[in-house]
């Protein structure tokens, strides 16, 4: 059975509870923590676990949940922050990969946009690394989005700033550095972000040879990690946690497109942020009702005024939520027109792309959680 919409935050809280218990020394005061955020890793990517020795060793020495349902919207930045704060998007305020603040006219754009580093986007809740720093712990973070931001006046001890799609060499080097910092007591926790799985999923799809190769390469990296932990005699000194922000659907966004140009005059829109399953619109004041009524007739999509967004999304109270939010039915993609569709030319066939972001009713956007070492199998019981 599918998880209820309320479970994501309970899961995030459970993950944070486990991490905090480990860091507090409830099990062994000498143990350090190594956390991996693997972007876009779908819950079933490890179904062939017998042929993934790196992942299998972690599972054999710990616990793996069946799947984790992302918070709404099932996009990267909202769920990065839900996982690290244990709070819904409307509480931590990270409500999209693309956001706009009408008061300052600033934009948050996924990636390396300088304005996205402004504390105002991040200060809605306290992420784990900030909590740890406040408690006198030392945190080293590698390519983790947001680690370069001063959040509530705090930065981690060390931050290797995010770059688009860190390479496998970046990953291996980060693992080596993190283990050395943890081993030498320069760090109490290290966090590593890896984007390759998400990139290949978007470009080639979740069943492609490219995604299978990326998974095998990632598994090789974890085989190396497991070996280095043994070589450094750290098996009794470290806990390892792996999780992801969302999965990936089998749906190509080129197939079912809702073209807003067919229903509204886009010159009446002050701002539009994002394209895809969830789109944010700020219509001109004198055109608001007209825009709302026109969009209300569109099939395969719901349009919500801010205060009419369903409570189950835990979204409408977000500071940066738009005056109109468009939510597509599963499999449908919202854009101005087909010419504005994002896609990739992969060199072998027609341009295309795969997507996530639909709300909780497609199991394929679900992701995974794995915890290794000094963690009881009874601590986290999720199905």
Describe this structure as you would to a colleague.
By secondary structure, the protein is of the alpha/beta class. The chain has two domains: 7-250 and 361-372, Alkaline Phosphatase, subunit A, CATH 3.40.720.10; 257-340, Gyrase A, domain 2. The protein has nine helices and 15 strands. A seven-stranded mixed beta sheet has the order 2-15-8-1-7-5-6, sandwiched between helices. A four-stranded antiparallel beta sheet has the order 10-11-13-12. It is globular.
What attributes does this structure have?
383 residues; alpha/beta; Alkaline Phosphatase, subunit A; Gyrase A, domain 2; 2 domains; 7-stranded mixed β-sheet; 4-stranded antiparallel β-sheet; 9 helices; 15 strands; 27% helix; 18% strand; globular; disordered N terminus; disordered C terminus; lipid metabolism; EC 3.1.4.38; phosphoprotein; glycerophosphocholine cholinephosphodiesterase
Give the arrangement of secondary structure elements.
Layout: H1 7-24, E1 32-38, H2 53-60, E2 62-64, H3 76-85, H4 89-92, E3 98-101, E4 106-109, H5 128-134, E5 139-142, E6 158-160, H6 168-183, E7 189-194, H7 196-204, H8 209-231, E8 238-243, E9 257-259, E10 269-273, E11 278-283, H9 288-295, E12 301-305, E13 324-328, E14 333-335, E15 369-372
Parallel strand pairs: 1-7, 1-8, 5-6, 5-7, 9-14
Antiparallel strand pairs: 2-15, 3-4, 8-15, 10-11, 11-13, 12-13
Concise structural overview:
The chain is of the alpha/beta class and 383 residues long.
Q: Which ranges are low-confidence, i.e. pLDDT below 50, for 5 or more consecutive residues? A: 1-13, 361-365, 375-383
Main β-sheet description:
7 strands, mixed
Average per-residue pLDDT, rounded, comes to 85
Please state roughly what percent of the residues sit in beta strands, choosing from under 5%, 5-15%, 15-25%, 25-35%, 35-45% or over 45%.
Answer: 15-25%
Strands side by side in the biggest sheet: 2-15-8-1-7-5-6
| Alpha carbon gyration radius | 21 Å
Subcellular location: Cell membrane
Enzyme class: hydrolase
GO molecular function, one term: glycerophosphocholine cholinephosphodiesterase activity
Cofactor: Zn(2+)
């Amino acid at each position: 059975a599918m998880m209820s919409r309320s479970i994501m935050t309970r899961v995030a809280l459970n993950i944070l509870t486990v991490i905090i218990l480990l860091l507090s020394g409830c099990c062994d005061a000498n143990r350090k923590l190594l956390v991996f955020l693997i972007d876009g890793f779908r819950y079933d990517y490890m179904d062939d676990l017998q042929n993934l020795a790196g992942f299998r060793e972690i599972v054999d020495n710990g616990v793996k949940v069946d799947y984790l349902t992302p918070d709404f919207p099932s996009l990267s930045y909202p769920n990065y922050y839900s996982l690290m704060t244990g709070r819904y998007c409307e509480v931590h305020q990270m409500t999209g990969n693309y956001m706009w603040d009408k008061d300052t006219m600033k934009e948050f754009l996924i990636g390396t946009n300088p304005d996205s580093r402004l504390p105002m986007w991040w200060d809605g809740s306290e992420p784990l690394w900030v909590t740890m720093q406040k408690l006198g712990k030392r945190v080293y973070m590698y390519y983790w989005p947001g680690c370069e931001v001063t959040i509530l006046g705090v930065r981690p001890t060390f931050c290797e700033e995010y770059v688009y799609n860190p390479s496998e060499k970046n990953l291996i080097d980060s693992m080596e550095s993190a283990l050395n910092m943890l081993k030498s007591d320069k760090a109490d926790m290290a966090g590593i972000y890896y984007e390759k799985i998400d990139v290949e999923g978007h470009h080639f799809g979740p069943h492609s040879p490219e995604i299978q190769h990326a998974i095998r390469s990632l598994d090789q990296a974890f085989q190396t990690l497991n070996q280095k932990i043994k070589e450094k005699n750290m098996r009794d000194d470290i806990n390892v946690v792996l999780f992801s922000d969302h999965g990936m659907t089998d749906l190509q966004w080129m197939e079912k497109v809702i073209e807003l140009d067919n229903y509204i005059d886009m010159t009446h829109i002050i701002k539009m942020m994002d394209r895809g399953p969830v789109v944010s619109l700020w219509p001109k004041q004198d055109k608001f009702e007209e825009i709302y009524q026109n969009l209300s007739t569109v099939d395969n999509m719901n349009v919500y005024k801010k205060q009419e967004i369903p409570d189950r999304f835990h979204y409408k109270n977000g500071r940066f939520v738009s005056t109109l939010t468009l939510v597509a039915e599963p499999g449908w993609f919202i854009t101005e027109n087909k010419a504005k569709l994002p896609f990739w030319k992969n060199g072998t066939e027609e341009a295309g792309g795969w997507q996530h972001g639909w709300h909780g009713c497609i199991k394929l956007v679900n992701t995974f959680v794995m915890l290794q070492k000094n963690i009881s199998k009874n601590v986290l019981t999720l199905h």
